[in-house]
Amino acid sequence: MLNGYVEVELVRVAAPIGGRLTKLAVLRGDEVAAGAPLFVLESDREAAAVNAAQAQVGKADAQVADLSKGKRRDELAAIEAGIAAARAAQRQSETDLQRQQKLADAGFVSPNNLSALVAKRDADIAQVRQLEADLRSARLAARDDERDAAAAEARATRASLAQSEWDLAQKSLKSPVSARVEDTLYREGEWVNAGAPVVSLLSPAAIKLRFYVPEPLLPQFKAGTRVQVRCDGCGDPVPATVRFVAREAEFTPPVIYSRENRARLVYLVEAWPTEADAARLHPGQPVEVTPGAAQ
Question: Which residue in 124, 188, 231, 281 is deepest, having the highest Cβ count within 10 Å?
Answer without folding.
Answer: 281
